[in-house]
Amino acid sequence: MTARIDHLVTSGTFCLDGGTWEVDNNVWIVGDDHEAVVIDAAHDAGAIADAVGDRRLRAILCTHAHNDHIGAAPALAERTGAAIWLHLDDLPLWKLTHPDRLPDHWLDDGQVIETAGIDLTVLHTPGHAHGAVCLYDAGLGTVFTGDTLFKGGPGATGRSYSHFPTIIESIRDRLLTLPAGTVVRTGHGETTTIGAEAPHLDEWIARGH
Questions:
Q1: Rounded CA gap, 86 and 135, in Å?
Q2: How does pLDDT run across 78-112, given as a tens digit for each residue?
Q3: How far apart are CA 65 and CA 63, in angstroms?
Q4: Residue 120 contacts residue 112 (beta carbons within 8 Å)
């Protein structure tokens, strides 16, 4: 069965450090006609479950634990029986949103999540959050970057649990080393490619945020 990537946009709020912002989030569903994983269960468990359909949902993978990326994860897990995976370094952020429900498993750098013939390799890419990860599949020629790398530059680092030099290091060493044609599927907004973003690294560093 041919693997595919389904894309859903959900809307809600992002809350941190006393501020609240309206946001649209990309939800990525990776699999085939029989099974799939969800990358970032944002805002609306019902809409995500509808997009998964009658497929077996094997895992809910969290690129990081900001509330707009994990808000619907427990409800989706309860509805589908899928396990929630998060990097341990983001547990403090997770607890801000879900103090009474821990993730089921921890994502580790270099770990491979398999489903429907797809191998998603976990890349620990701290900076936007301590436990931020990206998920790379060479066969699909794509990397799911959450809020680490966007079209036009790095994710925000002006709030708690973030650090600009660290996100630059993560992008330089873990993402820009991927093949130039790799499609970057982000947590918000449009897709891009590694080759389109790589020439701008020095500009981002000079900008300094």
A1: 12
A2: 999 999 999 999 999 999 999 999 999 999 999 99
A3: 7
A4: yes
